[in-house]
Amino acid sequence: MKKLVGIVLLILPMLAQASVGVSLDEVDVDVSDKASLMRGAQYFATYCQSCHSIKHMRYSRIADDLAIPEKQVEQELIPGGGFLYSSMTTAMSAKDAEQWFAGAKAPDLSLIARSRGPDWLYTYLRGFYLDAARPFGVNNVVFPDVAMPNVLWEMQGQQKAVFKKEGKTEVLDRLMLVEGGQMTPQEFDAAITDLVNFLVYAGEPAQLQRTSLGKYVILFLIVFLVLAYRLKKEFWKDVH
Length: 240
Ligand code: HEC
Prior knowledge:
The protein is an alpha+beta fold. It has helices at about 1-20, 35-50, 60-65, 70-75, 95-100, 110-115, 120-125, 155, 185-205, 205-235; strands at about 55-60, 85-90, 130, 140, 155-165, 170-180.
């Protein structure tokens, strides 16, 4: 009996996940691609920062990490000429946010890539679809009844959800573009890849140094291997 309960407890969460039924689209991010990170940072500053902050990130750090002149970071990323050494805060006050989004808060996105994962973010940001029943006229495939408007619709265009019958219930089958945006779907996917890449980097800026350090560690190990081998030969020469 105990075993049975154990098995049921094990299986339950799997069932719960399966019933969500939305598969995530995979994204291939590359935090060593500095041009992509800078584009992502620009998208963030333009389209997201009016509501979301990334408190753990300083502009000066972006300049350092991406090897971009501080002047350029100031011009392209800091809205209204903010301070290079301040963190990426949002201009929105908590009170406004509460009023506009019926109590839902636009969360700080410092750690969002770690809590949700890149694939989820990629699917979420491309997953808004028209739904007249919602306050902002849109819903989302991975975040049902989300309180965030589709801020990227000008780039993406508008999508409609196509449902299919599964037994008695209707489930979401796929999204269909019903009105084109400024970008082609491929361009839009690439833009979101950059944005997600930036959020992944923001979640752990030190990973940039770590990956570049990794190369030196491997190089050191190879050199060390050669030296050790030579030394070993030298030591054993007389023994044989
Ligand atoms: C107009 C304000 C606004 C803008 C602009 C905005 N968001 Fe949001 N966002 C929200 C609100 C409000 C929520 C909370 C939704 C909820 O809880 O239902 C949210 C939620 C999210 C979430 C989900 C957080 C979670 O709980 O997992 C992510 C990720 C996100 N936003 C990313 C972005 C990105 C990236 C951009 C820029 C492309 C952006 N948002 C632009 C208001 C905004």
